Amino acid sequence: MYRYLRNVIFKLDPEVDHHIVEFCLKHFAPLPLVNDFLANQFCYFDECLSQEVLGMRFYNPVGLAAGFDKNATMIEGLALMGFGFIEAGSTTLYPQEGNPKPRIFRFVQEESIQNAMGFNNDGAVKIAERVKKIYPFQIPIAINLGKNKTAEDALKNYEENLKVFKDLGDFYVFNVSSPNTPNLRDLQNESFVKELFSMARSHTDKPLFLKVCPDNVIEQTLKVCESAISGGANGIVATNTTMDYSLLRSPKNIGGISGRALRNKSREAFYEISKAFFGKATLVAVGGIFDGEEAYSRIKMGATLVEVYSAMIFEGPSVCKKINKEIANLLRQDGYNHISEAIGVDIR
Ligand SMILES: Cc1cc2nc3c(=O)[nH]c(=O)nc-3n(C[C@H](O)[C@H](O)[C@H](O)COP(=O)(O)O)c2cc1C
Q1: 288 close to ligand 1 (CB < 6 Angstrom)
Q2: Alpha-carbon gap, residue 1 to 267, rounded angstroms
Q3: 258 C-alpha vs ligand 1 centroid, how far in Å?
Q4: How many CB atoms lie within 10 A of CB 332?
Q5: Is the pLDDT of residue 30 over 90?
Q6: Which of 21, 51, 83, 248 shows the greatest Cβ crowding within 10 Å of its Cβ?
Q7: Ligand 1 pocket, 242 CB below 6 A?
Q8: In the annotation, is 178 catalytic?
Q9: Does ligand 1 have an atom closer than 6 angstroms to the CB of 113?
């Protein structure tokens, strides 16, 4: 059904669609009857998918990637879409408008998205007020932390941002890999990342993650991940969008690419990261995951959790349930009783 609906939805500007979805999830999803309907329709429970990770309980391994709920306005509604966890943000310390529009483009045939949003968000204080109203929540909430475009002292900016969320959120993801804030990706260097996580560790005992891009030379990415872990990070989220515009037939000249076009590049980066850090850090795979088969292959490659964004846009709200069902079937086909038995089997 979503395939038909999508033809209508895709006639509108992506940001207009996003605001419509946000309005519906915010206002209608919490209504009792709607709430029950959505939960029945989209949530999937299977003991074989439920796991405890870093002290948090995930009833399934499929989370919503950062950027969809930048302002934490939809967490309750999104939970009803069946996600095992939600990554809100990226938030920045101060509110900012982001880049001029249009800044998000769909490539329907290639089931890909190119975005140059530039961390448009309401700012940490306002977003934290929203999270406070629902936290602690029924599923883990991650806060993805970004940097203000004009902040000169990046470390301080991240630090103040983190401090606003100190008692909110179950874990934190530091985003130094968005292509849409000038020079942000330059922060993916060993010394900054080490300082970043040492700073973060001095403020919180909660799990900390680094989100990396898929575009750097892999040896450099591995060094940066190593620095993050030695600074106190518990895990790596791989990957953010790519700036490899050769992956689309008619790309725009701005922003980062997500979706099917990103899949192989993201998977390759994830594989290398996992070969180096499986068993030493908790790994979260994101980038071009649209079905249970791809999700399961990343799990076997070492991902404890996976995330989706573009798949929600192209496959619709039932995608999370579909992926979870498929993972559960694939686990059983391979003779496993529980997801933990499959994590990392391909690289062990
Ligand atoms: C419109 C849009 C906005 C995004 N904003 C953020 C963001 O604010 N922070 C972040 O870490 N990643 C952001 N991302 C990247 C996603 O979290 C994810 O890493 C990427 O889209 C790859 O996953 P996918 O192929 O499943 O979409 C954004 C992606 C899109 C499409």
Answers
A1: yes
A2: 30
A3: 7
A4: 12
A5: no
A6: 83
A7: no
A8: yes
A9: yes
Helix (H, G, I), strand (E, B) or coil at 27: helix
* Fold of the domain spanning 2-342: TIM Barrel (3.20.20)
Dist CA 263 CA 161 (whole Å)? 31
Indicate the average pLDDT of the chain: 96
Q: Is 32 exposed, middle or buried (0-12, 13-18, 19+ CB in 10 A)?
A: exposed
Expressed in angstroms and rounded, the spacing between residue 32 Cα and the centre of ligand 1 is: 31
d(CA 71, CA 172): 15
Instruction: Pick from 180, 240, 298 the residue to mutate for probing ligand 1's pocket: most ligand atoms within 8 Å of its CB.
Output: 240
Could you tell me if the CB of 175 is within 6 A of ligand 1?
Answer: yes
- Three-state SS at 43: coil
- Decide if pLDDT at 211 tops 90: yes
What does the pLDDT look like over 130-158, one tens digit per residue? Answer: 999 999 999 999 999 999 999 999 999 99
Indicate whether residue 229 lines ligand 1 (CB < 6 A): no
What's the pLDDT score for residue 348?
A: 79
Q: What integer pLDDT is reported at residue 1 of this predicted model?
A: 83
Placement of tokens 């791809």 in the chain: 294
Helices (H) and strands (E) in the chain, counts: 13, 13
Using the atom order of ligand 1, give the atom closest to the CA of residue 121. Answer: 8
Q: Name the residue of 236, 258, 268 whose CB sits within 8 Å of the most ligand 1 atoms, as the mutation to test its pocket.
A: 258
Residue from 90, 112, 177, 178 carrying the catalytic annotation: 178
SS3 142: strand
Distance CA 330, CA 298 (A): 13
Predicted confidence (pLDDT) per residue in 235-275, tens digit: 999 999 999 999 999 999 999 999 999 999 999 999 999 99
Pick 187 or 334 by higher pLDDT: 334
Q: Which residues pair with 211 in a beta bridge?
A: 175, 237
pLDDT at 22: 96
Across 317-327, average pLDDT:
97
Q: What DSSP state is assigned to residue 64?
A: E
